[in-house]
Design brief:
The complex is a heterodimer of chains A (308) and B (293). Chain A contains 13 helices and no strands. With 308 residues, chain A is mainly α. The radius of gyration of chain A is 24 Å and the shape is flat. Chain B is built from 13 helices and no strands. In chain B, helix 1 runs antiparallel to helix 13. Chain B is elongated and about 75 Å long. The chains are: A mainly alpha (308), B mainly alpha (293).
């Protein structure tokens, strides 16, 4: 087991290097001169040249990348062009909002999606099955940001039950979490349903029934444990998608997260902040994938036995 | 000789008829197909339905935020423009961006996937590891990254979404190529001296079209959704062009007093995505009944 985790952690290193290099190179392609952005439109050429020198922008791109990554190992990401503060501090301040949002979304989806999927599969072709399948179809097709606006319209403007998003109280996270969770709920439901349907026809389920196990025990402890493996893959993939979706949803609910930070940085051509946000996202995605792979090994004894 | 020929043509036709027959039995897929056909017609004849300069982008501040009426079917927006006309022209933008983005993704990802699957070994490893890196970033974020580097315009949006969807096609095409490349007809083609590119293009790809068609249909939906999301956060199509997501964004400030400005474009996006998804699922079942879940 330790060997498996070790191998998997080692595999993460080239992925993170590849991802950060990709992000770095793409951003360096951006038209416009960052030194000019920092100096302002009226600055003379000598000042701009000085700034370029100070920021290391006249070095070759690969050298800049190596410098950046070395800085990252020491916990620095350069300074923001607009505020002059260290980028890493701005990111640290914004990170909790985005994470809470993404994980609350996943939690909503797990709590609603998986049970619905189980019910759909065990009561296949019942009315409940049809209703949840229909809801899943709609949930996947619905633009997330639109759903968010509709929830604001109904629950905070018309009914006045919940705030339309603030990062201070827990109530402020309710609507954003539901908005984030709906697409994932549909996804989890469909995966759980089809995976359960597959498992439930297996011989060992018949054996469990034959030896007299109750329906609840058959479904929950024999079928579900095996059916969950593909579901966990999907959950892992969805955390990534949700972090990406957080960028849009933070705009809808005006929440101060990584997404809104990144979008305003893009509009201000504030390169270090954009880079910092993207690299943070990239590292988080790799960590989530790592976590999911390790979780697999715990759930699926077949993987565990390979590394005995 | 004559006899074999007739048999072959008859078999070919019957396969298409068979697919259509299976497709027609699936009511949801037919509904999806019907909606998609209507949307395509609307996009093609948008200029005949409403004039771009006279109706779609012409402002009329006095008549703003009107509710739905006989004159303005879906009401007017924050600048008094007819929402119905804007949605009609928006269909043209959304479908165009969606389809072109998928063509870009298919051309780049498909080529890479075919090369990786056909040649295998080191080439396969290098290409697919790079694709894995792309895949570990969500499509929307990757598209944001590319748009922010290229600047936002319609063409850049297509490129960004196309490149972001590239790895999916690389995977699908690679898997399909792997599944047919060791079959006897490929060996036969190689034996008579066909070149690699000829074998891939003429013998392998036509035999793995089904999963590619299905994936392309579903990906158009994702691309349309991404376009709307990017425009919503201000990184996509710029006003006054009537993009669905941008219309939602500009109607946001008046959501309390004129909810129709936000409700209607969102519903249309949802119906479009739903139709494409139903069509894609239906195609999957019709093209390859084995895949049916």
């Amino acid at each position: 087991m330790g060997k498996y985790i070790f191998k998997r952690v080692l595999m993460m290193i080239p992925v993170i290097i590849g991802l950060s290099l990709l992000v770095f190179l793409v951003l360096k392609m951006t038209p416009g001169d960052p030194a000019r952005v920092v100096a302002g439109a009226e600055a003379d050429e000598a000042t701009v040249e000085q700034i370029r020198e100070d920021l290391g922008l006249n070095k070759p791109v690969l050298q800049q990348y190596v410098d950046y990554m070395l800085g990252l190992l020491h916990g620095t990401m350069g300074n923001s062009y607009t505020t002059g503060k260290p980028v890493i501090d701005e990111i640290k301040a914004r990170m909790p909002t985005t994470f809470i949002l993404a994980f609350a979304g996943v939690a909503v989806a797990v709590v609603i999606g998986i049970p619905l999927g189980i019910i759909s599969a065990t009561k296949q072709y019942s009315i409940l099955d049809y209703i949840s399948t229909l809801l899943a179809l709609a949930g996947v097709a619905m633009p997330n940001f639109w759903l968010g606006l509709m929830l604001i319209l109904l629950f905070s403007l018309k009914l006045g039950w919940l705030p339309s998003g603030d990062a201070v109280s827990w109530q402020g996270y309710v609507l954003p979490a539901i908005t984030m969770g709906v697409g994932a709920t549909a996804n989890f439901m469909r995966t759980t349903r089809s995976s359960m349907l597959e498992v439930i026809r297996q011989d060992y389920i018949r054996t469990a029934r034959a030896k007299g196990a109750g329906e609840q025990r058959v479904v929950l402890s024999h079928a579900l444990r095996n059916a969950l493996i593909p579901v966990i893959t999907v959950i892992g993939l969805q955390i990534g998608t949700l972090l990406g979706g957080a960028v849009v949803n933070e705009t809808v609910f005006s929440l101060p997260g990584l997404g809104t930070l990144m979008i305003s940085a893009i509009n201000q051509k504030n390169e270090p902040v954009v880079l910092g946000c993207l690299i943070t996202f990239a590292i988080v995605f790799s960590l989530v994938n790592l976590f999911v792979d390790i979780l697999y090994a715990f759930i699926d004894p077949r993987i565990k036995s390979q590394y005995k | 000789m004559e006899k074999t020929k007739t048999v072959v043509t008859r078999k070919k036709r019957s396969q298409l008829t068979e697919i259509w027959r299976r497709m027609r039995r699936n009511k949801l897929a037919m509904l999806g197909l019907a909606i998609v056909v209507v949307l395509i017609l609307v996009a093609v004849f948008a200029d005949q339905i409403a004039d771009y300069n006279e109706v779609v982008i012409k402002q009329n501040i006095i008549g703003r935020y009107q509710g739905p009426s006989a004159e303005h079917w879906f009401g007017t927006d924050e600048l008094g423009r007819d929402i119905f006309a804007r949605l009609v022209h928006g269909a043209r933008i959304s479908l165009l961006v969606g389809v072109v983005a998928v063509i870009i993704a298919l051309a780049t990802g498909g080529t890479l996937g075919a090369i990786a699957g056909y040649f295998g070994g080191v080439i396969d490893n290098i290409i697919m590891r790079i694709m894995d890196i792309f895949l570990s970033i969500p499509i929307l974020l990757l598209a944001i990254m590319i748009v922010s580097a290229l600047g936002s315009s319609m063409l850049n949006l297509m490129i960004a979404i196309g490149i972001a969807s590239m790895p999916t096609f690389a995977r699908v095409v690679r898997a399909s190529v792997l599944s047919v490349k060791d079959q006897e007809f490929v060996e036969a083609a190689r034996a008579i001296g066909a070149t690699n590119s000829h074998i891939i293009l003429r013998h392998i790809l036509p035999n793995c079209l089904s999963p590619i068609i299905v994936q392309a249909t579903l990906r158009v939906a994702t691309a349309i959704l991404s376009t709307a999301s990017l425009s919503f956060i201000g990184l996509g199509i710029k006003p006054p062009a009537p993009e669905w997501g941008a219309m939602l964004a500009s109607g946001r400030s008046a959501i309390r007093d004129a909810p129709h400005v936000v409700v209607i474009p969102g519903l249309l996006i949802m119906v479009t995505i739903l139709a494409l998804n139903l069509l894609g699922d239906g195609l999957r079942d019709a093209l390859d009944p084995k895949l049916k879940r």
